[in-house]
Amino acid sequence: MFPFHGYELFLKTSNFWECFDPLYLTVNKRDRYNVRIQDNISIAEYRQIYGDEWPEEWKLKYPVFDQIQVPMLQNREDMIKWVTRNGDIVNYSTGQVWCDLRCSNAIKDWHHIVWFSQMVPKHAFILWLAIWNRLSTQDRMSKWNLSKSYSCALCDEVPDSVAHLFFECSYSRKVWEIMKTKLLFKGLSYKIGSVIEVLEKYPFKKQIWSVINRIVIAAIVYYIWQERNSRIFKGMKRDSQGLSMKVQEFIKVKLLTLKVKHTKSVQQAGEIWQINWNC
Ligand SMILES: [Zn+2]
């Protein structure tokens, strides 16, 4: 298993999977074997077989491949680079690695926000990638393609990044503002990192609001990421109000599947989300 922070791939001989450690965990062994992408394959070897494309089988089975580009070969000598937890590519040094790993320990509690029994797996996965800054955002893509200019598909103002999309972007900001009215927290930040920090301090129990908070943040991140990709890859647009409605509809259906006991908090949640649990 590869570390979350890892070596960026510029190298013909580099291991294909080191660039995609979350994918290595996602694509099961049989699916890797079926398409002849073994654990020790290099980027050059991969591109000889599939070029710029992902294997069809993977694209059908794992939607995440719609959002990721095949790594490019670059005409230069092999070198070792380190991808920091902020996604910056720097020269490898044990000091930087140590810092990143130490920082990781400082946020050890965040996984309770992502992985819990009532989570929606595809939402959890995108939130997980966002927290690790591993989404294929334009700030990352621009490091691969220096000649291309990028602009956020949601606001068309600046290149997108995790920080921009969640929720500095004027479009995302509107969605987040609407959704915040459905939570008990007041004054939640427009920075995803700060929001996660607030949620980390909330008890990770089965109380209704603890569950709602986590379902909501994962759903917002997922739907904003989906909207961004729909605009880029399909040319389809939904305004911030429409997206907010879609997120709320999804969350309401999800909340209705929860088994709850009648408490003051449940009654309050039912009123805010307009749900009758019949408990
Ligand atoms: Zn934007």
Tell me what you see in this structure.
- By secondary structure, the protein is an all-alpha fold.
- It has 2 domains: 106 residues, no CATH class; 165 residues, no CATH class.
- 51% of the residues lie in helices and 2% in strands.
- It is built from 14 helices and 2 strands.
- The protein has a two-stranded antiparallel sheet with strand order 1-2.
- The N terminus is likely disordered.
- Zinc ion binds next to loops.
Order of helices and strands: HHHHEEHHHHHHHHHH
Mean pLDDT: 80
Main β-sheet description: 2 strands, antiparallel
Q: Residue share in helices?
A: 40-55%
Tally of strands: 2
Beta-strand portion reads under 5%
From the helix content, strand content and strand pairing, which structural class follows? mainly alpha
Number of domains: 2
Strand order across the biggest sheet?
A: 1-2
Which value, in Å, is the CA radius of gyration?
A: 20 Å
N/C terminus separation: 45 Å
Output the number of helix runs: 14
**Which stretches are low in confidence, meaning pLDDT under 50 for 5 or more residues running?**
1-12
Bound molecules: zinc ion
